[in-house]
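User: Here's a chain of 373 residues. Predict its fold as tokens.
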Amino acid sequence: MAENAFRFFRGTCHLFYEDLNKTQQLTQYPVTWICGDLHLENFGSYKGDNRLVYFDLNDFDEAILAPASWELSRMATSIFVGFETLGIELQEATQMCRHFTQVYSTTLAKGKSRYIEPQTAKGIVRDFLDRVRERRIKVILRQRTVRKKGQIKFNFDKVRLFKVEPSLKGKLIEFINNWLVKNDRTGFEILDGGFRIAGTGSIGVKRYVFLLRKTENTKKYLFLDMKQAMASSLAPYADVQQPQWSGNAQRVVAVQQRMQNVSPALLGAAQFNDESYAIKEMQPTADKIDFMVIRNRFNSISRVIEDMAVLTASAQLRSAGRQGSAIADELIAFGKDATWQKPLIEYAKSYAAQVKKDYRDFVNDYNKGLLKQ
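Assistant: Prediction complete.
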């Protein structure tokens, strides 16, 4: 989080909503399902159960039922903070925020959700998805595994991947085997398991990864991610009645299935040792748009922001009318009303300045050693 202001912003979702809850600048908008932590790097590619590659919202840990403004204001703030971190002028960031809100509104007003796959993508996203689609599992295997005594095992680098205590590993593998059978996902052999570190805001939660091989085709491998699901950091500020979930993983998985056109392979919820976990096929952390590469290509950035706006609106339309969320007609009316756009952008711009201040305070305390436990 001390790396730069945008990394700090990504890791302080709770702080953003605590501050948003105190302001009266934004009027209440239609209640929708939101991923809860929408920003530039929470869009990415993944393979669905149909093995096709999609580009979509891809982080639902904070998912909740809340005003649409919550999602939009965080995304807009991420544009201001992220673009400044990239050295992009404030004028361009403001223009991109306007572009995002306008495309989002236009998509809502049409009332029809859309999705992005290689065949429908354009520009930099099309190139990005083509590379992901053509990537071979052998490349990932070489990066993350080693061969020992004729068997493929994880390469525990003690940076991103760590060994787990043998008795816990045995219980985890038994649990995953039972989960696969229970969810009609048979035909896999578990070769290894370990503790995985990934993300920024999720550092500190329990997260395991497993190496699986198909029993009928021993040349086919995949990685399975099992991540502890915590309560949404937005929950203390949401005065909207929430459904009664059996666990946080059920919330995360249910909202993800509603908002995405096609969900990642093997997506499901489970309880292990009385803790809630979301399970899915692991997605490589590199499968995100690298804005550093395209920061001087205005047209490419504009196209990506446009795609993100379409996907945000489509996710809300797709999940409309579910357990308290606004129906499609309400979202269509909201899309046709442009009066909310300017106040929201102004709030995002002013809050980006607050993020910079908070980041400086954080770095000062970090350098003084005040954050050590």
